[in-house]
Target: Amidophosphoribosyltransferase
Amino acid sequence: MCGILGTSSHNSAYECYRGLLAVQHRGQDSAGILSFDGIVHLKKEKGLVLNVFNKEELSKLEGFNAIGHVRYLTTGTSTLSEAQPFFLSYPCGIGLAHNGNITNFKELKKELEERNRCIHSKSDTEVMINILSEELVKNDTFGAIHECMKKIEGSYSAVVLLPKKLVAFRDPYGIRPLVFGEKTSLNGNAFSFASESVGLDVNGYSLIRDLLPGEAIVIEDNKVEKRVLCPKGRAHCMFEWVYFSRPDSVIEGKSVYEARIELGRNIEFEGEGDVVIPVPDTARTAALGFSEKYGIKHREGLIKNRYVGRTFIMPSQVSRDIAVRDKLNVIKGEIRGKKVILVDDSIVRGTTSRRIVSMLRSNGAKEVHMVSTCPPIKHPCYYGIDMPTESELIAATDTDIVAEKIGADSVTYQTIKGLIKAIGLKKEDLCLACLNGDYPTHIPEEVRKGLTRAREYEREADCKVGVI
Model:
């Protein structure tokens, strides 16, 4: 789950920078910006946006159009060679940044290599840019994107930089988010694309709408052309409203903040508690909704060190475990001797939940009842979220067993019905694959096995360094 930005304005690189800061929560591994003013300017490094760019670096990124990216590791390795945006000068000059996961990546990579296309990384984005570059030699912009959509499977939202053009497109199911904005200034109209509406807000753009599934938009000479090329339905990732997006974002016309309030209100809880404690930060809003519904006081019992990143999107279980210890501390007076209702956005692997429950107990909690605003996650995600093996997903077992494994007195999950009602979209318009196993696209068995092997290899590497 990455964050992408595209801007067409008189201050594009700086606006990309500010937009990337706004979507930094979507990726912490690397950051990059590509601009064009007749010459290609590219800056990308490992690390956070604030660490990668400074005033001097931004001043070098000249041009009316720019694209940017923050990376969350799903495919490839945590190296600079995987950082985006990517750029190709042959056979067609093109820059591209991508959010999502191409499920037929290996098949496409093999086909490219058979045509003597050299792939330098393990990134599916590099495969995408090579395919699009080839198609641009044979077709106009919309035709090339349409051909790509017919070949590429999986999830993708992308921003593309061509000479004098800024382009954005979204996969035929609209799995990954992408919004379009516009503003008017003394210099004329300006346009922007972003993974979330907060990436538009920070630069003063008005949210026009989300790109439609299978749609492409081309900005050239301050003019906008839109075409829906390859729509196959709607399968918007429910996890955007549960966890990934900022609460001040609006996705598919639905406020993330309001959805999370409703997620808390829709929980059917049968136990007792003295205090509702959210796991910061994404569960705060839902905890308010839960507290209002049940009339149980809401308190901040866990304080987050804001200089530690989001543990879910860290590249290994070791780094996640260490980060939990560094990230959270307990306000003992709000915990000691009380029946705590601990509200979190989701329970994925259970390791973070187990550590937090243990922290509360060691600081005097009488009881700890875990509430998840997301239904049980029982199946891997192949569309850009790090949930690759069923054996890692703790909710594959009974709720009582989950409670025992994380050390809680009870575990209560959101229902799928409650989730859908909170988001406010039709069930058929949401991707719920990680909950019910109903994948919107075909996932070859070899892809599933490959992701499982990769995860198991990561675990073995963690053990070998002696951390686990």
Summary: The domain at 3-233 is CATH 3.60.20.10 (Glutamine Phosphoribosylpyrophosphate, subunit 1, domain 1). The chain has a mean pLDDT of 91. The two ends are 26 Å apart (CA to CA). The first strand starts at residue 3 and ends at 8.
